[in-house]
Amino acid sequence: MIGYVTLGTSDLPRAARFYDAIAAEMGTGRMMEFGEFIAWGTPGGGAGIGLTKPFDGKAASVGNGVMVALEAKDPAQVQRLYEIALANGGTDEGAPGPRGDGGFYAAYFRDPDGNKLNAFVMDAG
Q1: The whole model's pTM is what?
Q2: Which of 12, 32, 67, 72 could join 116 via S-S bond, C-beta 3.0 to 4.6 A?
Q3: How many domains does the chain have?
Q4: Is residue 62 part of a domain?
Q5: What's 34's domain CATH number?
Q6: Which pLDDT score is estimated for 124?
Q7: Could you tell me the residue range of the domain that residue 91 belongs to?
Q8: pLDDT, tens digit, for every residue of 31-90?
Q9: DSSP annotation string for the chain
C-alpha cells in the first residue's frame, strides 16, 4: 500500500500554491510541513502527496514515465481539478474526457515543475 508520494520542486512556495489549490478541491490540506518539505493529505486517510527540494541540493527534475493519479469523486470534480491546475501554473497534458472502454474518465496536467498528474474517476460512463 502506498502511504505517500513525494515529488521534487525547485520553487517550494510556487509549487505549494499549486498543491494547496488542488488539495482544497479534494477536501484536504497540508498535514505536515517543515524546512523544505510539505505534505498534503488526511492523517489516517488515503495516500498523500509531498513536495521537497531535493536532499542532494541539485535541481529537481521530472521522472520520465512517472505520474501521480488523483482519485476524484465524479467527472465534474475531474473538470474542476483540471481547471484549478491550469489556473495555478499547471500545463495541459490531455483535457478531461473518457479514456478507453472501461468507464475511465480522466484529465492530465503537469504541475509548475513539470511533474505529471492526472485526475480520474472510474465508472463515470
Answers
A1: 0.88
A2: 67
A3: 1
A4: no
A5: 3.10.180.10
A6: 59
A7: 4-54+68-121
A8: 999 989 999 999 888 899 999 999 899 989 988 889 999 999 999 999 999 999 999 999
A9: ---EEEEE-S-HHHHHHHHHHHHHHTT-EEEEEETTEEEEE-TTSS-EEEEE--TTSSPP-PPTT-EEEEE-SSHHHHHHHHHHHHHTT-EEEEEEEEETTTTEEEEEEE-TT--EEEEEESS--
